[in-house]
Design goal:
This protein is α/β, with parallel strands linked by helices. The chain has a domain of about 170 residues: Rossmann fold. Helix content is about 45%, strand content about 20%. The protein has 10 helices and 8 strands. Strands 1, 2, 3, 4, 5, 6, 7 and 8 form an 8-stranded mixed beta sheet that branches. Helix 5 links the parallel strand 2 and strand 3. Helix 1 runs antiparallel to helix 2, helix 2 packs across helix 10 and helix 9 runs antiparallel to helix 10. The protein is globular and about 55 Å long.
């Protein structure tokens, strides 16, 4: 869940007693602990290899020399799985170098170093030519562009008939309690599944299929390693108020999700450029 940066900023800003200069200094310190918390985790957000494989299975008549862009790849668990199940070349894009370093090490271990090309760049500054990619993949990251803006950019970068596979945070039920709605409060313009399907159609994609990630994608694949790291760092930073506030926000996120997993989740959308 990469929107925690904004949460940290608001945490300090709305104390009401700090100057903007002090806010920015505290935010940078807070981000230091945030990145330490997430560096080394197998995943940067909810997901699992079975869901990656399931999504890929819906793609038909792919070219023999498949070119894939993985936007916001993080530490690259899904990137490696794409390399295993396809014969394609993958450009793995992220703007946090430690994630890319971790992916590079794992790609070398599995012999994918020639097929996984690392690119340190913000998704907001992508400079690829239009019509470059056969497939664009993004698990839990495209929201940083705004879902509709992300769809529009991906449409531009895809070849005619190219595919886009993306997971997006959604409300799973319309009667969600206040706590479930609050879970997404730092997430820009969260919608239900139908609302996202409408955006997909507006941006001239044909929706092939969609499915909800299982709860285990959150609790086992993402939160369990995160909770182990939280326990380690809380011991390491005993008495450090800034660090403990950052960790407390992650703990609150985990607690809130577990109580509201029937109402909030990630939906996998697989679509094709018309």
């Amino acid at each position: 869940m990469f929107f925690i940066k904004e949460v940290i900023h608001n945490l300090f800003k709305f104390r009401g007693v700090l100057s903007e200069k002090k806010v920015n200094r505290d935010v940078m310190e807070g981000m230091e602990y945030f990145y330490e918390l997430y560096t080394g985790l197998p995943r940067g957000g909810p997901g699992d290899n079975a869901s990656t494989r399931k999504a890929f299975s819906y793609l038909k008549n792919l070219p023999s020399e498949l070119l894939i862009l993985d936007i916001g790849c993080g530490p690259g668990m899904q990137t490696l799985e794409l390399a295993r199940i396809s014969k394609g070349t993958i450009i793995a894009l992220d703007n946090y170098q430690p994630f890319l370093d971790s992916l590079q090490q794992n790609a070398l271990k599995e012999g994918f170093e020639k097929r996984i090309i690392l690119k340190n760049q913000s998704m907001l500054e992508m400079d690829f030519n239009s019509g470059t990619f056969d497939l664009i993949w993004s698990e839990g990251a495209l929201y940083q562009m705004g879902f509709q803006n992300g769809l529009r950019k991906c449409y531009q970068l895809l070849k005619k008939g190219g595919y886009l596979a993306v997971t997006e945070g959604v409300m799973l039920q319309s009667n969600a309690p206040a706590a479930a709605k609050k879970f997404w409060e730092e997430y820009p313009d969260v919608k239900d599944i139908k609302g996202n399907i409408n955006l997909i159609k507006q941006e001239h994609f044909d929706l092939i299929v969609h499915f909800t990630l299982p709860v285990s994608s959150w609790t086992e694949q993402y939160y369990a390693p995160l909770e182990r790291k939280l326990r380690e760092l809380k011991k390491k930073y005993q008495g450090n108020t800034t660090a403990l506030q950052v960790f407390a926000m992650s703990e609150k996120e985990i607690e809130t999700y577990k109580k509201n997993s029937d109402y909030v989740g990630y939906e996998f959308f697989i679509m094709q450029k018309k």
